[in-house]
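DM between two lab members

TW: hey, do you still have the 3'(2'),5'-bisphosphate nucleotidase CysQ entry open?
JB: yeah, one sec
JB: this one, 265 aa:
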Amino acid sequence: MDYTALVDTMRRLALEAGDVIMEIYNSDDFDVKVKSDESPVTAADEAADALISAGLRAAFPDVMLVTEEQAASHTQSGDTFLIVDPLDGTKEFIHRRGDFTVNIALVENGVPTRGVVYAPARNRLFYTTADGQSVEETGPFDKAAPGATSPISVADSDNAALMVVASKSHRDQATDDYINKYAVKDMKSAGSSLKFCLVATGEADIYPRLGRTMEWDTAAGHAVLAGAGGEVVRFDDLTPLRYGKDTYANPFFIAHAPGVTLQES
Ligand SMILES: Nc1ncnc2c1ncn2[C@@H]1O[C@H](COP(=O)(O)O)[C@@H](OP(=O)(O)O)[C@H]1O
Ligand SMILES: [Mg+2]
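TW: and the structure you got?
JB:
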């Protein structure tokens, strides 16, 4: 795999998809449909999916492609693939709350090794570079060439004063009970894969997810976090979260800076 070409392509497609999404976000009105799994989908999800899929297929015709919006038609299986969530945080998008992201990742042998997360309404762009180190690029973003970037790395965590981030729209008692096992300095809530990026930049120490997600929701954020020195483990046995699982469904997980002393479930 040519990682330089891959990262350039992922970055460009995420920015292009972000433009398409923002055009719809800023329009007066858009339709919301409900998918078979009861989750909402908009024209923005579909347009971004089509754009990214076409771009990845053209650039990497031999690499298997998994996308959220085409999940029902996936017939191939394997542990090396490109995986896309064209608009993560659709509820955030619909309610115009801004925490939504474009997500593109490469999974190799079950591990997300490269990824891009773009939050167009927040003007934040995170990705792994060709060498695997994670960076945040500061806008304005030029699709043709990367601008100024800064390396990001996880916090040097203080287990007596942890910053926790959790889902805005999927939050329950079990999550709160688990968070209460830690000495928490402060809590923040965020939508979408941005939560992984907040751990990656050191803005949070831990993101526990005791709720359903699919691999396309997490792969790009997971790659960005890993490239910043962080880890994502299964909630049940604290082993690394792996990809290419049956139906692409994730178990509950914990994303964290390595200095956090994890509590048992
Ligand atoms: N019951 C469920 N089954 C599968 N995925 C779910 C789910 N409930 C929430 N999710 C996933 O969680 C994502 C939202 O995460 P968060 O709550 O952290 O913002 C959604 O992404 P989409 O918005 O792309 O559909 C959705 O895929
Ligand atoms: Mg999603």
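TW: got it. Residues 65 and 107 are 10 Å apart (CA to CA). Residues 68, 85, 88, 217 surround magnesium ion (ligand 2) (CB under 6 Å).
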